[in-house]
Amino acid sequence: xxxxxxxxxxxxxxxxxxxxxxxxxxxxxxxxxxxxxxxxxxxxxxxxxxxxxxxxxxxxxxxxxxxxxxxxxxxxxxxxxxxxxxxxxxxxxxxxxxxxxxxxxxxxxxxxxxxxxxxxxxxx
Amino acid sequence: xxxxxxxxxxxxxxxxxxxxxxxxxxxxxxxxxxxxxxxxxxxxxxxxxxxxxxxxxxxxxxxxxxxxxxxxxxxxxxxxxxxxxxxxxxxxxxxxxxxxxxxxxxxxxxxxxxxxxxxxxxxxxxxxxxxxxxxxxxxxxxxxxxxxxxxxxxxxxx
Lengths: 124, 158
What we know:
CATH class of chain B: Alpha Beta
CATH architecture of chain A: 3-Layer(aba) Sandwich
Shape of chain A: globular
Largest sheet of chain B: 8 strands, antiparallel
Number of domains of chain B: 1
Largest interface: A-B, 22 and 23 residues
Structural class of chain B: alpha+beta
Oligomer: heterodimer
Number of helices of chain A: 5
Helix content of chain B: 25-40%
């Protein structure tokens, strides 16, 4: 299982990597903003993308719109501080498959990852 | 400042520290503040939209080292870029969790900035009162300084 983590905080990427490792997902690529992610994502070919919203250069919602516009269907979980219902709706409309609000427990992130992979027909 | 904008920060700091730092926070009485911040290490985030201003999460260096170490699950020196990164993420999560409770308000937050150095100051937004929330964890005190106000809708339209 290949997981792509996009977050401008290296600390947050490390926390997510450590959490994914508890599920056995250690094949991880990282990007620090949406533009960096667009330049790396196709070469990596992830099964799942964990994506922050607020990032410099290109934010997460812009990444989703551009990635989906290319016809890519890889499931995306938005992992963000943006907790308002209007933001969740905006993200889902843009093509996000699931949503995790920071702060999160390792258990809640694991649950969303497993749930999203199962829905996408990929073994968790 | 309206209590509707203070209480969300009380809940946010407790939630972020218990979930991500694994620490209980004891909160003191919110107080009006003039000179900011009081400590050496500050994470700063801006708010824009229906509510504008800034949030400063400020620690004495030894407390910051302890808190950041627990958050990042590794000991980090204040001169390390990862130390600033982790502090920025903490103030980002607190501000994001708080603004989600501003009912009916459309608010955006900036990417965080971090300032490290004894005696530094952070300019307060004009015409905006600042409320300081004293916080205590097992290793010492820190503060969250909130200087925000509602943006009149006419100003937004302009």
